[in-house]
């Protein structure tokens, strides 16, 4: 399926504006003891989902961002169960396409959650090549991930792979540029790619986004640092994942700020 076909099938439009829901600390994580109970975490996620919908966002993405420090490559059943509960609650209340990301690089678990709660895509770290992240060495997961997806009958769940992921050192693959990395993801059957800046809330390089969009046939989502002012700087992007700017004071861990979220949605509508 071509780029536009994938976007139409998943999001019902040529472009998507994806609201990031940074799910509160889940059972078992260090911050969970001092945080709200799971029921409140779920309520907050649903409240944010409704707010994104009311502002005009066209899709949602849930991520266990508060589960610091992140486990590498796998999480326990308590996280899978909690993320599934969050996803199901969001899906019941808000009829928008939903994505799942489970940190850090717990891509099989994300696919399992997506299948169980009716989500349509996952955001996968460490899909191709290797890099050194906060959590340590992250190795390619494409082979295992796509075989697992097939084994559990989750082929309808699409995989959007981060390329040259943020919060990571890429010295190991310094001789492989971001376009070649994206082409490798395409060759290894990713359904789309995500391009980010170097850290959370830092904008992606416009030239890199353009090069990846021109150099592959996959949908390209911009995954960090988006604001009302810079959305138009990515004319070849197929979608935008917005998190930090939509929060109070532009800080990802703060509550959602309706006015800031609405400002991004207005800028998105102006692109059409």
What is the secondary structure topology, with strand pairs?
Elements: H1 3-11, E1 16-22, H2 38-55, E2 59-63, H3 77-93, E3 98-101, H4 107-117, E4 121-124, E5 131-133, E6 136-138, H5 142-151, E7 158-162, E8 168-169, H6 178-187, E9 192-195, H7 206-215, E10 220-222, E11 239-242, H8 258-271
Parallel strand pairs: 1-2, 1-11, 2-3, 3-4, 4-7, 7-9, 9-10, 10-11
Antiparallel strand pairs: 5-6, 5-8
Helix pairs in contact: 2-3, 3-4, 4-5, 6-7
Describe what this molecule looks like in 3D.
The chain has one domain: Aldolase class I (TIM Barrel). Helix content is 36%, strand content 16%. It has helices at 3-11, 38-55, 77-93, 107-117, 142-151, 178-187, 206-215, 258-271, and strands spanning 16-22, 59-63, 98-101, 121-124, 131-133, 136-138, 158-162, 168-169, 192-195, 220-222, 239-242. Strands 1-2-3-4-7-9-10-11 form an eight-stranded parallel beta barrel, surrounded by seven helices. The protein has a three-stranded antiparallel beta sheet with strand order 6-5-8, with no helix packed on it. β2 (59-63), α3 and β3 form a beta-alpha-beta unit. The mean pLDDT is 96.
């Amino acid at each position: 399926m071509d780029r536009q076909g994938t976007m139409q099938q998943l999001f019902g439009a040529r472009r998507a504006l994806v609201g990031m829901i940074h799910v509160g600390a889940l059972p078992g994580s260090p911050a969970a003891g001092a945080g709200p109970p799971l029921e409140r975490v779920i309520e907050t996620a649903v409240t944010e989902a409704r707010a994104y919908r009311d502002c005009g966002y066209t899709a949602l993405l849930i991520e266990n961002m508060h589960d610091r420090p992140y486990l590498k490559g796998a999480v326990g059943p308590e996280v899978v169960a909690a993320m599934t509960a969050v996803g199901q609650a969001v899906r019941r209340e808000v009829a928008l396409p939903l994505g799942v990301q489970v940190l850090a690089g717990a891509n099989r678990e994300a696919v399992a959650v997506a299948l169980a709660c009716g989500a349509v895509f996952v955001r996968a770290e460490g899909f191709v090549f290797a890099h050194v992240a906060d959590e340590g060495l992250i190795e390619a997961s494409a082979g295992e991930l796509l075989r697992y997806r097939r084994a559990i009958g989750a082929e309808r769940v699409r995989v959007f792979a981060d390329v040259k992921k943020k919060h990571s050192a890429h010295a190991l693959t310094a001789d492989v540029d971001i376009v070649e990395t994206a082409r490798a993801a395409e060759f290894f059957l990713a359904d789309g790619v995500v391009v980010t800046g170097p850290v959370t809330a830092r904008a992606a390089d416009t030239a890199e986004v353009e090069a990846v969009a021109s150099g592959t046939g996959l949908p390209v989502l911009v995954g960090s640092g988006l604001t009302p002012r810079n959305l138009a700087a990515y004319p070849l992007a197929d979608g935008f994942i917005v998190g930090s700017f939509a929060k109070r004071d532009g800080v990802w861990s703060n509550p959602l700020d309706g006015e800031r979220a609405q400002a991004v949605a207005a800028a998105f509508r102006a692109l059409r």
